[in-house]
Amino acid sequence: MNPDRTSLGPTTAELLRRGATARIPKQFLLGQHQEGRRLLRSVAIEDASPLKIAKWQTDLELAPKLADDNHLFVVHLGGAAVHRQDRTEPAHLPGSFKFLPGPEPSRWASAGAAVFAHLYLGAQLVGGIAEALYGRDLNDEDLFSSQAITSGPLQRMMTTAMESILGDQPISKLQLDAWALILGEAVLRHFSRYADRPLPSKQPTGLSPAAQRRVFEYVDAHLETAVGLSNLADVACMSPYHFARCFKTSTGMTPHHYVVKQRVDRAKHLLRESELSVAQIAFACGFSSQSHLTTVFKRITGETPARYRKGLRV
Fold first, then answer.
1. pTM to 2 decimals?
2. Residue range 262-312 in CATH 1.10.357.10
3. What is the spatial distance between Cα 271 and Cα 305, in angstroms, rounded to a whole number?
4. For residue 299, what pLDDT is reported?
């Protein structure tokens, strides 16, 4: 047995992979909802990701939500109020969001056109987090739907998630995996029978020196690729949820922030030591485009890559 393998929660990095929502081909979504509903944007819909996002515009006056293997956050981004037809509860208004457990069907009616974001969260991921936090299995009856949440910490969390996921800059796989864990823990803490239970008081102890070294070496060797949380957790021989907490204890930063820092450091090195163009350096360091590198580089260093390189040559 590997001495670095944790015994807390699931013992492999399959927490994210097992928790992945099923691949949803974009053409299926478009075909399924072509009357009265239009898919405006999607994130990770066709990937084996534990979190998928679809942004819709709908003119449907009546819409059902069928039982499903994925839990669902519905974020009302604008337009007409929406009312639940199978239960009496306050209207779902722009700026609010709701949580709907996967197995629970529901029916909705709107007074006109509305724009929504649907966040599909893998049920197995939430079950894995419950196992990691509480050592318990999660059953269908353990979760309950919410009324529309319009303010407070949860609403601010969802606003931040929407800005991160649907913002102008592309979201990385690590960021999306991190949001999956954040939303999964929020489900357990606010919409489950575990809601009133305190979180375990024991703080993560951090990575062992050997595990931390392996993770650092893996990141250095794969900066140009789409590194995911499950990849890093595999290297550390931990579940992704436990790994993310231990990594932050050890380094003082999230896995995503560490990888971004390493990418910027490599970009600096290539700007100094090579004649590669800024665009070539962007792809060599794992950024999606030259503009993506420029935005991140300037945010961290205070100057653009081109100005940084020019300053070196003065």
1. 0.79
2. no
3. 7
4. 94
